[in-house]
Design a protein that fits this description.
heterodimer, A: about 500 residues, Rossmann fold, 6-stranded mixed sheet, 18 helices, B: about 325 residues, two-stranded antiparallel ribbon, 13 helices
């Protein structure tokens, strides 16, 4: 028996209604090491984080800290037991200063009632100096760059003097120089009695910072590899290594089909840089990439939901300027959001109202009065043809299952008779049977000559459905693959590319 | 914190839940109506002076102003907005009416049309501020509330304008087109306005979009609907009702009172809320609003007849609002 592990997960499992998010999970964090944790979107990393921070409790299995069983009752308790977690989304108050953010919830007092501003500042200065961070205690956090905000998060996490530091995609918003600073920080933190769990997708970084790499997939433990003796393609193949659901991808769409939508140099203030691609008639164009790669942003920019800084859009060769989704709808472009509940459906309204929403003005009205009978008739037709399971078209949308809700959103755009449909995560949160129906529907639509952009985080889905695949990373297109060249490995390789980045913003 | 994964929230109720919900929604309408009846019966028993033709007419008559304002603001509230400018906006419209009809001698029909258009203008500005400039409705209409009050005083030199020379104007409200009765026209106008509002809300594209915007503004916009434009239309419509209320109140009083108006907006909002329209938008009905307005005036009237001091009447009205909204919330939490 060697020395005890710093942190261990043994057979940990967690289920949610209808899904097993984690099963039989193993993690072994040794003393003084940086353990990388990798897996595709939805592999179970965030669930694991939430278990460790006490937001969820495991259904089965146990965690051990120093060989002792570890139970965490909440984020506060996790901190007290020496586990600091830096989440992907920052938990900072933009209007407070750096010092105030660092010591939020444990501000030094002066006397009984007053805050000890001076003590606060002194402690913040001391902390920042100890960590060699180029931050000033009095700066307003909202004025800092993302990279510096990240540093504040890290300083806050380290100020609790944790033994285990867990970082969830800490470099998603950083450029190369900033990543270096972060890695130096990690190296300084690493000591004989501490350890780091580092979650990332970026292969080059894993090589630079980690000692070992644990791969998880579909909520299960796959393997743990020594970084020094492992090639990154081995890691990738373990990450994606499952069979594609059924058969191979479709044939490419014939080159002579006319280009329907042509996007050139699309750039937005926040994220997108010079995004260009063509969409042909009858084509399903897959958009692959990791979380935050900018796929949804491309869709939103095309339909005018978000402002565009530069770039052109052509529809069948005609340049168009689309500044609102209403414009897009006039040009027969429909966008089906990934966020079905918040951006797709009127949950409190009935199925009929939802299906008719986009087309009521051009199809179901006379002199401003709604023609209820034809609208309901059309809704019923679509409920039948899409096999939407609902007692009637008068059913309130929120009572339908996720798959049927998604079909209602699709029905809405079918009534509108759009030429271009952008599906953002069309099968998210939908059970397997309903997924198959959605796939069948997409294929039918493409066969009818509709042009489809399908954004998906599920690689097998992208490969199975797409005639061509556009891969994005950090707001840029890093590659376009024909169906024949698109494999899990080739897409994942492009998706984890760090595009050339300029200096700090 | 990270967002919850989509898979967790997929489990939903099935068909019976939907049917139950529909039943409960009907029940709520019924409950509002039932509580109106209960209050009505309650006062009839307690006071011999309550249930007679004269007093009932009185109650209906006193519902007109609040009711008219409440009709327009129902649309705004269903979109998830709020309109605080309707009270002083009404006073300003009354003053405009006086300026046009009394001071400038504009013929009556034209004058009335002018006032309705002016009301629409107030609403249009509100709509522009909310939909185009993106100001929160509370702030935009709060500002308009002050502007309208100030303008009413400026345009009238802070003195009431009397309609003594135009008795036909006063007849708009207190005259009676039903021969041989003294049933006031104002009540008939309110009824017609309510029917028009009901048709607009339930039968037209405008009405559908009103509910859609209130249910989920982002989803409505992404469905290709020009939400900005429709919001402007809806606020403008509310403005027309404000103009109508301005005519009704000045005709009833025989004068345009520039310093009044403040407080009417809250009574109107109270009527809408008691009628089951949700301040968070997406839900509501004209029938509910009419019942809500009636509940308020029945309460006021009954308490007055029972010689309960004005101060206590407000306390009771406040409690009724709390009760109504609480009942609505309780109903929602059982169906959610």
């Amino acid at each position: 028996m060697t020395e005890t592990l710093l942190l261990e997960a043994r057979g940990v499992g967690k289920s949610f209604p209808g899904v097993r998010a984690l099963q039989d999970m193993h993690i072994e964090l040794r003393r003084g090491e940086v353990l990388a944790l990798v897996g595709e979107n939805g592999a179970g990393k965030s669930t694991l984080m939430k278990l460790l921070s006490g937001i969820y409790t495991p259904d089965e299995g146990e965690f051990f800290l120093d060989g002792e069983p570890l139970r965490v009752s909440g984020p506060r308790d996790a901190l007290e037991q020496g586990i600091s977690i830096i989440h992907q989304e920052f938990n900072l108050m933009p209007d407070l200063t750096v010092a105030q953010n660092l010591f939020i919830g444990r501000e030094p007092r002066a006397g009984r009632f007053f805050l000890g501003e001076r003590a606060l500042e002194e402690r913040a200065t001391e902390l920042l100096e100890r960590l060699h961070l180029p931050l000033k205690p009095r700066q307003r956090v909202g004025d800092l760059t993302v990279a510096k905000q990240q540093m504040v998060e890290i300083a806050k996490a380290l100020s609790y003097e944790p033994r285990i530091l867990i970082m969830d995609e800490p470099t998603a918003a950083l450029n190369d120089a900033e990543v270096k600073v972060l890695h130096d920080l990690i190296r300084r933190f690493r000591g004989p009695d501490t350890g780091v769990i580092y979650i990332s997708h970026r292969m080059d970084e894993l090589k630079a910072i980690s000692d070992r790499i644990t791969v998880i997939r579909d909520g299960r433990y796959i393997d743990t590899l020594d970084t020094a003796t492992t090639s990154m393609s081995e890691v990738i193949s373990r990450m994606v290594g499952r069979e594609i659901a059924s058969g191979v991808g479709p044939e490419g769409v014939r080159e002579d089909r006319p280009v329907v939508l042509s996007v050139r140099g699309l750039t937005t203030k926040e994220l997108l840089k010079d995004v260009s691609f063509d969409l042909r008639e009858g084509e399903i164009l897959g958009f692959a990439g990791l979380m935050g790669a900018g796929r949804t942003e491309v869709a939103r920019a095309i339909v005018g939901a978000d402002p565009v800084e530069s770039g052109t859009v052509e529809l069948r060769g005609e340049p168009v300027r689309i500044t609102s989704p209403a414009d897009a709808a006039r040009h027969r472009i429909g966008y089906l959001s990934e966020d079905r509940k918040n951006l797709g459906l009127l949950l409190e309204q009935d199925v009929n109202a939802n299906i008719g929403l986009s087309s009521i003005r051009e199809r179901f009205q006379k002199w401003g009065f709604v023609l209820d009978r034809p609208m309901k008739a059309r809704s019923r037709e679509l409920v039948d043809s899409l096999r939407i399971r609902t007692p009637s078209v008068d059913q309130t949308a929120k009572f339908l299952s996720g798959g049927n809700q998604q079909k209602v959103v699709i029905a809405k755009w079918l009534v509108k008779d759009c030429d271009i449909l952008i599906f953002d995560e069309p099968t998210r949160g939908i059970d397997v049977g309903a997924k198959e129906e959605i796939y069948r529907l997409l294929n039918e639509l493409a066969a009818q000559g509709k042009s489809i952009i399908m954004i998906s985080s599920e690689l097998p889905e992208v490969l199975r459905m797409s005639h061509r695949v556009v891969v994005m990373s950090e707001g840029r297109v890093t590659g376009q693959l024909e169906a024949a060249e698109a494999t899990q490995e080739s897409v994942m390789h492009l998706a984890t590319l760090r595009p050339e980045t300029e200096a700090v913003r | 914190m990270t967002t919850p994964t989509a898979t967790e929230e997929e489990q939903r109720g099935d068909a019976p839940a939907g049917v139950r919900q529909a039943l409960r929604a009907g029940l709520q309408q019924f409950l509002a109506f039932a509580s109106l009846l209960v209050i009505f019966v309650f006062f009839s028993i307690l006071s011999p002076n309550f249930f007679n033709y004269g007093n009932i007419t009185n109650i209906l008559f006193s519902t007109v102003v609040i009711g008219t304002l409440a009709l327009g603001t129902t649309f705004v509230i269903i979109t998830g907005g709020i309109d605080l400018s309707i009270g002083t906006g009404m006073a300003l419209c009354a003053v405009i009416s006086g300026v046009l009809i009394v001071n400038a001698g504009v013929p009556l029909p034209l004058g009335v049309l002018g006032v309705l258009l002016f009301g629409a203008l107030i609403g249009l500005v509100n709509g522009f501020n909310v939909a185009v400039l993106g100001l929160p409705p509370f702030i935009a209409t709060l500002a308009m509330m002050l502007v309208a009050q100030g303008l009413a005083l400026v345009l009238s030199n802070s003195t009431p304008i009397y309609f003594d020379q135009t008795p036909s104007y006063i007849d708009i409200s207190i005259g009676s087109i039903i021969p041989g009765t003294n049933f006031p026209n104002a009540v008939i106008i309110l009824a017609v306005a309510a029917v028009i509002a009901g048709v607009l809300l339930n039968k037209t594209v405008l009405g559908r979009y009103t509910y859609s915007i209130g249910s989920n503004e982002d989803a409505t916009a992404l469905s290709g609907i020009d939400v900005r434009r429709w919001k402007i239309v809806i606020y403008t419509l509310a403005g027309v009702f404000t103009g109508l209320a301005g005519i009704m109140i000045s005709a009833r009083l025989g004068s345009a009172q520039p310093a009044t108006g403040m407080g009417y907006e809250l009574q109107a909002i109270a009527a809408v809320v008691i009628g089951g329209t949700s301040l968070s938008g997406g839900k509501g009905s004209i029938v509910g609003t009419v019942i809500g307005a009636l509940i308020i005036s029945v309460l006021n009237n009954g308490l007055q007849i029972m010689s309960i001091p004005q101060e206590w009447q407000n306390v009771i009205l406040g409690c009724v609002i709390l009760l109504a909204v609480y009942a609505d919330r309780a109903r929602k939490s059982t169906t959610a």
